[in-house]
TrEMBL record:
This is Dihydrofolate reductase. It comes from Rhizobium chutanense. Its EC number is 1.5.1.3. Gene3D superfamilies: Dihydrofolate Reductase, subunit A. Pathway: Cofactor biosynthesis; tetrahydrofolate biosynthesis; 5,6,7,8-tetrahydrofolate from 7,8-dihydrofolate: step 1/1. The keyword Glycoprotein does not apply.
Length: 172
């Protein structure tokens, strides 16, 4: 069977901020629609704090939540104690459901560990510098090649304009 792609899906402010006080420091309705389209039907891997901020499993996707202590007793959530364990579970779920992609959806600690495993990143660049307490690692242009880029003006339910970029890992 073909390789399972590992894709990071994230929205990042110009200064690297992705979260504040367990939430996102923006409202981006148009980006939430894109997020749903990108992740629907695919296993999503997230940390417990991200899961808590969402408040429930994301519907239409197998949810794998990483936590060293907590357990979430929900039929749509599979628990893992580490990122490698979560990725193994997500790959199995992807094969069982016949999809070729896993989406890594946060938060900061998970992204920092997963950036070395990912082969693709779908990043919404929020055109603002914001205060926050969770950040995304720097994107190394020697490792990542920016491909398709779509400028998205702020819609009526968006607090900032964005730029959606798909990055592919450069292979040696």
């Amino acid at each position: 069977m073909a390789d399972i792609h590992k894709t990071i899906v994230v929205a990042v402010a110009r200064n690297g901020i992705i979260g504040r006080d367990g939430d996102m420091p923006w409202r981006l309705s148009s980006d939430l629609k894109r997020f749903k389209a990108l992740t629907l039907g695919k296993p999503v891997v997230m940390g417990r704090k991200t899961y808590d901020s969402i408040g429930k499993p994301l519907p239409g996707r197998p949810n794998v939540v990483i936590s060293r202590q907590a357990t979430i007793d929900h039929p749509d959530v599979q628990m893992a104690h580490s990122l490698p364990e979560a990725m193994t579970a997500a790959e199995r779920l992807a094969r069982e459901t016949g999809v070729d992609e896993i989406c890594i959806i946060g938060g900061g600690q998970v992204y920092t560990q997963a950036i070395d495993l990912a082969d693709r990143m779908c990043i919404t660049h929020v055109e603002a510098d914001l205060d926050g307490d969770a950040s995304f690692p720097a994107i190394d242009p020697d490792i990542w090649r920016a491909g398709e880029t779509i400028a998205v003006p702020a819609g009526e339910k968006d607090t900032y304009p964005t730029r959606f970029v798909v990055y592919e890992r450069r292979h040696a």
